[in-house]
Amino acid sequence: MTRQDGRAFDELRGIRITPGFAEFAEGSVLIEWGGTKVLCCASVEERAPHHVPGGEGWVTAEYAMLPRANRERSRRDVSKLKLAPRSAEIQRLIGRSLRAAVDLKALGERTITVDCDVLQGDGGTRTASVTGGYLALALACRKLLAEGVLHRDPIVGYVAGVSAGIVDDRLLLDLCYAEDSRAMVDLNCVMNDRGELIELQGTGEGRPFTVDEQQSLVRLCAKGIGALIELQKNVLHS
Amino acid sequence: MTRQDGRAFDELRGIRITPGFAEFAEGSVLIEWGGTKVLCCASVEERAPHHVPGGEGWVTAEYAMLPRANRERSRRDVSKLKLAPRSAEIQRLIGRSLRAAVDLKALGERTITVDCDVLQGDGGTRTASVTGGYLALALACRKLLAEGVLHRDPIVGYVAGVSAGIVDDRLLLDLCYAEDSRAMVDLNCVMNDRGELIELQGTGEGRPFTVDEQQSLVRLCAKGIGALIELQKNVLHS
Amino acid sequence: MTRQDGRAFDELRGIRITPGFAEFAEGSVLIEWGGTKVLCCASVEERAPHHVPGGEGWVTAEYAMLPRANRERSRRDVSKLKLAPRSAEIQRLIGRSLRAAVDLKALGERTITVDCDVLQGDGGTRTASVTGGYLALALACRKLLAEGVLHRDPIVGYVAGVSAGIVDDRLLLDLCYAEDSRAMVDLNCVMNDRGELIELQGTGEGRPFTVDEQQSLVRLCAKGIGALIELQKNVLHS
Amino acid sequence: MTRQDGRAFDELRGIRITPGFAEFAEGSVLIEWGGTKVLCCASVEERAPHHVPGGEGWVTAEYAMLPRANRERSRRDVSKLKLAPRSAEIQRLIGRSLRAAVDLKALGERTITVDCDVLQGDGGTRTASVTGGYLALALACRKLLAEGVLHRDPIVGYVAGVSAGIVDDRLLLDLCYAEDSRAMVDLNCVMNDRGELIELQGTGEGRPFTVDEQQSLVRLCAKGIGALIELQKNVLHS
Amino acid sequence: MTRQDGRAFDELRGIRITPGFAEFAEGSVLIEWGGTKVLCCASVEERAPHHVPGGEGWVTAEYAMLPRANRERSRRDVSKLKLAPRSAEIQRLIGRSLRAAVDLKALGERTITVDCDVLQGDGGTRTASVTGGYLALALACRKLLAEGVLHRDPIVGYVAGVSAGIVDDRLLLDLCYAEDSRAMVDLNCVMNDRGELIELQGTGEGRPFTVDEQQSLVRLCAKGIGALIELQKNVLHS
Amino acid sequence: MTRQDGRAFDELRGIRITPGFAEFAEGSVLIEWGGTKVLCCASVEERAPHHVPGGEGWVTAEYAMLPRANRERSRRDVSKLKLAPRSAEIQRLIGRSLRAAVDLKALGERTITVDCDVLQGDGGTRTASVTGGYLALALACRKLLAEGVLHRDPIVGYVAGVSAGIVDDRLLLDLCYAEDSRAMVDLNCVMNDRGELIELQGTGEGRPFTVDEQQSLVRLCAKGIGALIELQKNVLHS
What we know:
homohexamer, five-stranded mixed sheet, 32% helix
């Protein structure tokens, strides 16, 4: 039994990555993942925030959706004078995920801000942001190395994220919007290239889920992340 | 090998619950959990939000810390004109968790808002908010039943939350602040009285964690949540 | 003719003070005054604001109500993106009152912020905040003395506040909410232990009041403040 | 012994009132009181706020200072995204004072907003706003009567305000800025034409004040308000 | 003498237009104009704003830059809690320009909001927004016609915009960023397909400009706009 | 054929200028231009903003309308927590216009902020602000020269602004509100005393306008600005 778009239960949607889409950013990719399109830009600032120990750097993320990224237009955050709470939550997740890929001491006293702007959202925008944001970050570090600003690559491994969920009691990898909106359970994983977890968020708004189901969803994600990291390697080593 | 406060690795801190602490709220508890103190108040409004289907109700939560809940005073959200992103994230978690305990159709066209205000924060404030917020919510529903506003209890089960983490490579249940600030991995679970998961959030800011470690942390949490739900039953049936 | 809660016209409600309710603050009390509960926390910062002459310190206050402190839930200030004007007015009053008890030169170049958060409001929250806030402030100064940070106590006397009002043409001390909401005239006094005025605010929204009535209300307040200052002495010298 | 500008201790500064300064407002005056200049405009809206009982109206006030009303330029409220707390306090005082002059039932279901914008501030801006705002309000009501919108004048009496203070231990009426900035004690009264109090605010930031001093300051104010109400009568009956 | 990118003084940069870039919007184009990239999305709402006469519709625009659209990263509007004043000015210009192309009566009681989000800014973002926004708007109207929501096309003509400026005393069409940042005079025109002006903004921050120079700049723009409208026709009729 | 107020098509309304209206500002004028009244205050601060090259100064402007400047009362910007977009646009225009009159090097490292507050708006408030703001600025510079703070006048020429428009197909100078609200085309010019343009803004919300019409409107403005600069000279040299 296949899914509405013909995929197997453990199959990712098609992904296309355009490095350098934003020319001014130190690193950038446009990641198109099924119908989801996220522009990820990494910006380097020669200054670390106050809360960071001397000699170390910081990596942070911002996440936002364009007003017409969705089926309905949403008002801009600035017109409501507040960051959407969902964006606040997601950008904290992206930041933590990306920092897991970086040796902050090797980065030195600088800040890299990774902006993830969703041009079109068709499910999985947060994991697309992690996966694409990692690439923007890695490209920015590569540029700092090439320019001699850095002498050692602060990137210490790969990091990617994907979602899985339970739809009609079937466990499915990489939900598109139509699946996501019917899902009983939704789980996001961020993992590294050793198959270890960095972030894990599962939520059962439709129904609770068993510990066994949770494990199966993590396994599905692990499989998807393996493929995503291969893709990242191709982008960085092409 | 015991912990700094003498607890076993799988032992909860002492918890004291004072129902009815806030007299005007339809339901309220002060939950004191180790050094953490959260005032949870459930307020009923005879109106459902727009996004809810006709005939159904809604349960939502707000979370905030008093300025001097922590070791350092923080500025109030209003003086910064923005909700702390961490609070935004936590109140979304609490809301989802509490809705899992409620039959929104049985609630009818009304909204229950559960305010969780941290008077003192010593670790585990989000899970204390879920655990105490559940009680405030249940007490409010009981009041609506007693007044004849509701004829059927919309509460369909128990919900509680707890954290676990990895400190010095030991897996520990219910981290206090001193442990939390040294933890490599932090994981929060919200579960129901059938041992099913409702929310799961794990994060490895200090180091990544294996899928096996993740499973062990969930098992630790499950044990703690069993004890918490006994405690909730005592409060509601005393 | 007694009042609805059996008090004489010049009698205070029952008051209970719990020093050290908030463990992290340099000084704190929970003041429960009739049905009103205010948590007062004094926080010390080793820095004075710009407008203060060199070598001197500053004392300031913030006042807020929890959303369900009242019979009806109120929206949080941050969700309206503005400090409630009533809170703005009250916190200015508290700050001026507390500064009258302090030798700012003896305090040195530091700031003490007294947060007064109303957990439950049943009338008289501003004067409970002054009376309890004074204690939090004095306890914080005592801690600074004990730690050798200060060598001379900057507290130069006692300060407390109380309200009086005209209800059904009777002059009553210390209005509870039910009386306050029917009062024609409402007057608040803050005084020191020599019976001198520090702050005086009278308002006749229901009807104007004569100069004689105003004087009688001040006398009522003076009596109440005498009792409050005895209570403060007991707390500080027990 | 005279004051720096040659006035007796109980003498008002020179006052000039220009009715109709703002042509579009239903009622307006420019009040120039010594060096203080306040533009008061009353605007009528055919709608009462929600909190008002059916059939009744409401009177409210807003107060603000132009950026260069003072010796130093201040940033605009909007650039700080918050109403100055001092303005919040003052506009509440003005609103309460003006409502004491109005029969809200006779006003009917409409709102009159009195904007008091300080073009130049040289002490006494809040009492100038009450005194001038009353005139703008009365002129607006007169216009509604003339147009047949109202059949009965909702204005039920006169209301004016003035300050007094203690400077160098002398009690002085109507402090100008230079006196105000050196005053130990500052007291504002709003009274009606029967010499009754509507609002009373006294504050001893420099030193506390005795109940006797307080009484003498109220008497000084009462004298000044008598003269101010004569002035108001001249404006309205010329 | 050619320009730094080899263009003649009256030559446009290369322009590429991708209709339908954003799949959920009723009309959208990605316009890439030299190094400038603007995503224009038209969203239809079945409701007109209050200020519009009954039976008529409205067209409005919003303009924003992504944080890393420029050589330096800018903070997001929402983190500053205010719309950038420059964006406020530009989106008003776009809205007025687009309304000139529409018969608001034929549009009926609905609102079309055209979001112009600058993904990359290399000069001329406001005129690219007008030119691309017109296409998004026209495509949305075409969709409403195809769906039978509209029976008559509300688009009454073509509208496009371009800039010209004075750099080193030479008059140049369509300044790129490098030229714009050195320009003495900058002038933007919006015109229709009859060569009539809709908007005209000229500014001489570097030096004033004569009426003759102003006329020559308008002529340069008119030439460019002719070419732009040909381009628009190709997009709409291909 | 004369206009509704009897003026010829190329005739300015009556203008009255009161220098020194605001006593505390370094320079100020009240400009009354027909029914429009704008208070312009120039404030000097001994500090230049960061974006200015070392050794140079800056001139900036802020523009706002009092709530009852118009026929209908508007809500204050601060109560909406945002600067009105129209004000944002206008104050940028005023700032650019005034800087064209100043040698920023001669000003030295200081900032002059020109506040233009519209007390009453009857058309042409932005050009009245430029024309009056120039005088406030020039008076502030004169004061700095008189005090020896400056040794060379940074004012390098005259700057004034006026509007023209097309009403019933007639080209008219200096539209009053009643004309402006019926105008098809509206054009504002800011020019210097050599007849050169500094700012030019034309907009055809009612109908597009030809290049010839645009030229005629600029010629009308040029005539008006000549008269305005004579008036400025009279104020400064009287």
